[in-house]
Amino acid sequence: MFRSGAFVADHVTPTADSQVQPNGVDLTLDLVFEQLEPGRIGRDGKQIGDRVARPLEQLEQRDPDTYYLPKGAYVARYNERIAIPEGHIGFVYPRSSLMRNSCMLNTAVWDAGYEGRGEGLLQVHHDVEIERDARIAQLVFAEANHEDVYDGSYQGENIE
Ligand SMILES: O=c1ccn([C@H]2C[C@H](O)[C@@H](COP(=O)(O)OP(=O)(O)OP(=O)(O)O)O2)c(=O)[nH]1
């Protein structure tokens, strides 16, 4: 069973009322990164390729808190700290307005026990403007059986 947006909101910090949806909580955009170097996925272990934070628009006539993203693939970091409670699994979907603008967020499984500010693959198939802190995704929780909880290398990522 999928949980209500109000339940999800109890595990997402901070959460404004405007982010709480019937079936989940909207996540907002913090930073956009561009990968510079190849990564590596091994039989044991992995390496994330070097990346650089994409600059926010500097030109005077444009809003300084807006990303102007040309067609390409980026890594987007969310603002919210997410804690996946035991007995649950998380899934992130793109906000439909993002998808309707020819952009997509590709995401992986959010494990029970994970806590952090995670990331998603932002695919831009047509140039787009996205304001920093705009809502770009929605997190939903489903009830799930598991034996262990997440204890991998991304535990506690991007939080002070
Ligand atoms: O789109 C997603 C999906 C998951 N996560 C977070 C939550 C998840 O629990 C954690 C680790 O994901 P996964 O287990 O898929 O990563 P891995 O590559 O297998 O790393 P590890 O070996 O540390 O488990 O990353 C994200 O930030 N973005």
UniProtKB/TrEMBL annotation:
* UniProt keywords, alphabetically: Hydrolase, Nucleotide metabolism
According to its UniProt record, the EC number is 3.6.1.23
Q: Does the keyword Repeat apply?
A: no
**Is the Hydrolase keyword given for this protein?**
yes
Report the GO molecular function annotations.
dCTP deaminase activity; dUTP diphosphatase activity
Listed InterPro entries = dCTP_deaminase, dUTPase-like_sf, dUTPase_trimeric
Q: Name one GO biological process term.
A: dUTP biosynthetic process
Q: Tell me the domain of life.
A: Archaea
Group of enzyme by EC: hydrolase
Question: What is the protein's name according to its record?
Answer: Deoxyuridine 5'-triphosphate nucleotidohydrolase
